[in-house]
Amino acid sequence: MFAFLKGTIRAKDLLGGQEDRVVLEVSGVGFEIRMSPRSILALPDTGEEALVHTLLAVRENDLTIFGFESASERKLFQTLQKVSGVGPKMALSLVGTLGASQLVTAVEQEDTKMISQAPGVGKKVAERIVLELKGKLDAFGKSLSETGADAVAYTSGQTRDEVRAILEGLGYTITEINLALTEIGKEDVIPEDVEGLVRSCLRYLGAASVK
């Protein structure tokens, strides 16, 4: 029903669990949009204009608008729900925690450990996602490589895992870490070693904390 909404951000609430939301004012109407913490952190500040890709989910008497950073994330969100046992909340957790590009890469490489990092996703569900979607996400991989969106698969999986472990030890959440890795992947010069990547992430995370 709503492919996207464009308006002024009136509220950004990071409340934890499934309550994270953005209120977007469009033509005098405030739309409550459920988004992942990762996507909320990537939005402009409150009071600024933003475009949010959206999908209206209808379940019994419940109407929920889910929001995404890109049309690719929106489509991937829909595709994930074709997997047995994956509903909209879990699909949002997957897309929001890993990002579209990293999630596609994890599925194609059968990296269930990576997929299981999303809150609420256990080993069995991760295995089912790989089983049902591997080889069916080529269109997403091509689209993301052409646009450069979520360019996070630029170093080995082992290097990224080491970086995540170090940053988690410093108190950062997996959502913050993945967002930093995604943004660094868009830069012209990208560190390939653990130490350089950790330094770049810390610079990004430090800058984000003072916005």
How would you sum up this structure, described in words?
A hairpin with a 2-residue loop joins strand 2 and strand 3. Helix 2 packs across helix 3, helix 4 (100-108) crosses helix 7 (138-147) and helix 8 (157-169) crosses helix 10. The chain has three domains: 4-68, Nucleic acid-binding proteins (OB fold (Dihydrolipoamide Acetyltransferase, E2P)), CATH 2.40.50; 71-147, Orthogonal Bundle (DNA polymerase, domain 1); 157-209. The radius of gyration is 17 Å and the shape is globular. The chain is 48% helix and 19% strand. The chain has helices at residues 37-42, 71-80, 88-98, 100-108, 112-115, 123-133, 138-147, 157-169, 174-184, 194-209, and strands spanning 4-13, 21-26, 29-34, 49-59, 62-68. The two termini are 33 Å apart. It is of the alpha+beta class and 211 residues long. The chain has a five-stranded mixed beta barrel with strand order 1-2-3-5-4. The longest helix has 16 residues, at 194-209.
Task: Kindly provide the name of the CATH class of the largest domain.
Answer: Mainly Alpha
* Poorly predicted runs of 5 or more residues: 145-154
Number of strands: 5
Going across the biggest sheet, name each strand in turn.
1-2-3-5-4
CATH architecture of the largest domain: Orthogonal Bundle
Structural class: alpha+beta
Please name the CATH topology of the largest domain. Answer: DNA polymerase, domain 1
Order of helices and strands: EEEHEEHHHHHHHHH
Strand content: 15-25%
**Superfamily (CATH H level) name of the largest domain:** 5' to 3' exonuclease, C-terminal subdomain
The percentage helix is 40-55%
* Rg result: 17 Å
Number of domains: 3
Distance between the termini: 33 Å
Shape: globular
Number of helices: 10
What does the largest sheet look like?
A: 5 strands, mixed, barrel
Average pLDDT, rounded to a whole number, is 84
